[in-house]
């Protein structure tokens, strides 16, 4: 049993703290948002993440997991301090480090003993060194000392608990290898590959991994767009490519592109880092351009099917940036809805869990109780997020209830021929002759 403090109870921090508690450690989580901590202390979840609530409840009951807004309480006995605060995009695409800085400064002002400070936030290469400088500059208290370890997180929202407990690898970067070995001990029960490297390399592994996955998505979207011109079906093209072991089948789903709280800002931040350091990230720029254009393609498809969109009723299925999360940060649905509103369309939307978050960012959208209500009387429906419940709808009922039967399948989850049989004017993304725009 080790004593761990986690700073930030977002998707990463709450998952990390809870999973470490479940592995038998004593964990205390600190956040500056009182309401989040109050909710957790009342037994309520501040975020939606499958399987996490049960795990939080179990570990709180076992007294291995507690929550506070007070750094002094959080740090009092901590041997390890994990920083898991947000690093959103800044105005020029750089990673905004104010939360990391704030957390580090407060640690420096509060810590009174030796601890290993582990950075889990995704931070630009070189941040580990600045964390060390901040800690030193803000004055070590008597008896306080520290080592800094970079431990980038690779979990995916929607399967965060599974990914934490069954990682493909754990990456640890440190100037002091002994400190990295200490952190490695925490992960031993997971029996996974652990890679120890220097701080900067660990930080770069995270950016390079996300940029590579984003590149695969933009690559297949470019292929999808070529497929549309040439009458090939990108779903089968991807399946055929994926059978090649050198390529693999994951992250080859053509659609309206990536979104969320990581890929967009991480690719941008890597491109920014490259540029300010005199490198020319041409590939990263193309990845971002293709991704942005995919969202506009939906509008082009709707225009092709319906003509002018002014006054047309468009139903949007899915608001979260991907299934199994309530996260709408940089969700394609938001851009698509804004584009539709700019064309004068009347927008309705439904999502199984993200409506509350979406309400705070969208105006003039009618939020519906379910997918059927969203489609009833609509001129078109756009499938944006491939939640399982959208795959199992009674599509004959949907078709019968619509005004014009236009269906834009932004994630290629429906069978084009079957949709046409049901009377839809179907358009997928790169589905050969079934994706007119
Ligand atoms: N969300 C993901 O899927 C994911 C995956 C891998 C890595 N990451 C990275 O992990 C980091 C955290 O991401 P997230 O999605 O969990 O963010 P989040 O926005 O969900 O949570 C961050 C939390 O930190 C808190 N916070 C901010 N400043 C603080 C401070 N000074 N002291 C204490 N708490 C503070 C916020 O109140 C918030 O609760 C980011 O760098 C992100 O890029 C995220």
Structural features, described:
By secondary structure, the chain is an alpha/beta fold. The protein has two domains: 3-197, 3-Layer(aba) Sandwich (Rossmann fold); 231-434, Rossmann fold (3-Layer(aba) Sandwich). It contains 18 helices and 14 strands. The protein has helices spanning 11-22, 34-41, 52-61, 71-75, 98-110, 127-137, 160-165, 177-187, 199-230, 234-242, 263-276, 282-306, 332-342, 355-359, 371-375, 388-391, 395-401, 416-421; strands spanning 3-7, 26-30, 65-68, 80-83, 114-119, 145-150, 169-174, 193-197, 313-317, 346-350, 365-367, 380-383, 406-409, 425-427. Helix 5 packs parallel to helix 6. It binds nicotinamide-adenine-dinucleotide.
Question: Could you write a compact summary of the structure shown?
Answer:
The chain is α/β, with parallel strands linked by helices. Helix content is 44%, strand content 15%. The protein is built from 18 helices and 14 strands.
Beta strands, count: 14
Strand order of the largest sheet: 3-2-1-4-5-6-7-8
**Chain-averaged pLDDT:** 95
Indicate the overall shape: globular
Largest sheet data: 8 strands, mixed
Strand content: 5-15%
> If you compute it from the alpha carbons, what radius of gyration comes out, rounded to the nearest whole angstrom?
23 Å
| Structural class by SSE content | alpha/beta
